Amino acid sequence: MKKSLENIRFLFLLVAIGLFSCNKQTDQISIESPNKKIVVTVETIEGQLFYSVINEEEPIVNKSRLGFLFKNMPDLGNNVKINTVNQISTNETWEQVWGEKRLIENRFEELVLNIKEKNGLKRNFNLYFKVFNDGLGFRYEIPVQQNVDSIIITDELTQFNIANIYRAWWASAYKDKFYESLYKNSIISDITDTVITPLTLELSNNKFVAIHEANLTDYAALNIYFADSAKMETDLTPWSTGEKVFAKAGMVSPWRTITIGNSPGDLITSYIALNLNEPNKIDDTSWIKPGKYMGIWWSIHMGKHTWKPGSKHGATTENTKAYIDFAADNGFEGVLVEGWNNGWDFDWTTHGDSISFTEAYPDFDLEEITRYGASKNVNLIGHHETGGATKNYENQMEKAFKLYQSMGVSAVKTGYVNLNNLDGKEFHSSQYGIRHYRKVIETAAKYHIMIDNHEPAMPTGLQRTYPNLMTQEGVRGQEFNAWSQDGGNPPEHTTIVPFTRGLAGPMDYTFGTFNFENTAVPGTRVRTTIAKQLALYVVIYSPLQMASDLPKNYKGKKEFDFIKAVPVDWTITKVLEARIGDYIATARKDRHSEEWYLGCITDEYSREITIDLNFLDTDKTYKAEIYKDGANADWETNPNDFEYMEMIVKSSESLLIKMANSGGQAVRFVPID
Ligand code: NOJ
Predict the structure, then answer these.
(1) pLDDT given for residue 21 in this prediction
(2) CA atoms of 402 and 425, how far apart (whole Å)
(3) How far is ligand 1, taken at its centre, from the CA of residue 415, in Å?
(4) CATH number of domain containing 240
(5) What's the burial of 321, exposed, middle or buried (CB within 10 Å: 0-12/13-18/19+)?
(6) What is the mean pLDDT of residues 315-341?
(7) 142 and 49 in one domain?
(8) 44 part of a folded domain
(9) Cα(624)–Cα(645) distance, rounded to whole angstroms?
(10) Residue 259 sits in which domain range?
(11) Do both 257 and 375 map to the same domain?
(12) Is the pLDDT of residue 640 over 60?
């Protein structure tokens, strides 16, 4: 790890003071990205504070306001001047505990501005802008000072007035509590709702922009609404009482991020959000282990088993042992078991208060199962579904993690299904929810437990600081293919989510279904070919990946070899080809071997793409193990038609990838010399 702070420049009060022809006074300062291609300007116009962004001489963000609206004080951001300016250059590289890329370059130019009210309360605040080669982040700090003590934020004045938007991929905020809706693709005037972030935009100059946030700590999540097609305003998730954030002087906001790419893939391989989070706070990370798991899960969603006890209870000792046997025989690290604990008898989504996180149903012998698992090197993955009753969970959390730790359980899937919000009133993405989720991550870390969080707030890169926060849902995942009344996830869905929800962090989507029949709702099913199911393990990133189908559907299948082999921790990731909503081809190099993996998927249209293998190491020859759609594959009529073939390849060659409608291709490249 190398760290060097280059060139610290203090530019106190070296602010250009200019006069516009219409006599508006402007304080203005600009800063460039290290490669000089992005220019951010902060200025005051008639006492109001604005920023704007230019990339390669074209506007990316038109003048956009900065500041706050408060309940208990006058707004902040009017009648202000730029008081002091510091500029700092940073160029360092740090290593991820796990991830899509091992070494992360953190190179940026930073502007630190102190902004002061010219009269009245004479309050001041700091603005931090970090400008990278692929975008920027900025945050506010309201320091301790006279005239400011407790702060009640009713919203930010922050705007994101992105220039020349051609179209957006968006999903509504609030309507869908768990970020589990399909993303829509439209022009801006068709966006009728407040939308969540990441908000992904294609500009008319063919650039791609994503707006999101990083390091969401003790604050409310960012949402955006279009006041008109040129004005994009902040809408923080409120408390049930309407306020957005309760804070004290000394507070900092999350970073607001604007990632800029020349191709959609550039958004995926940007690491701005990780760079804007704090370094790892967990000293000993030896217990944090990415891996693959199976589970008593899909059978429940398919209606074959139940969470609640009875003749169809899934979480029995016998059933769990059978899963452990299969997992051990096939090299999986974990088995998730849902419905093991008291509390599932009633509608658990409304009776979360009666869930116990320590008492098992009589047909589930926790001690015996964990002993059996340990003897076969397979961990039980614990399950804490809270039904959104966070108080009930917090009351038991310490004891529950302690119990799991004493049984050798090192990963827990948490859940917050409740259509009436957390504890019947607060949004998951509110400051209330954010505080709760943080408490879970920190408590889990104390007991050496990794977290897979379902129904989360949108991720913001916190896994850098807490690498036990492995993966999260917050996506319309595989479960919809078991029971969704609309037939399941449409073929294009997985060609969109890597560029929307996926930009926020790892996704526990849980693919790997080989059986395309007999779901809980007739007509609903996995709408892909089998080769696409395999390719998704490369395309969609998670350090914990599930093979979601039942063991009997994997037995004797050549396709299963790919799931067994595919890694979950990578040295490097490259998005080779992509059109959002149409197709994506991603290559990743294993962090623990010299193998490369390629995943290509397409939407409802069959497609041929030529993939240049120049991502492979030039000095090696590889055996390519190719898992492809068969000649007659078709997601609707023939999803299981699949072919396996091997080829010897080098980086100077290319591969013609033929994909059926909603098909795909997965390739493992094993060096042979
Ligand atoms: C919703 C989660 O997404 C799903 O994976 C889980 O099985 C249920 N909640 C029950 O916890």
Answers:
(1) 31
(2) 29
(3) 6
(4) 2.70.98.10
(5) middle
(6) 98
(7) yes
(8) yes
(9) 8
(10) 5-275
(11) no
(12) yes
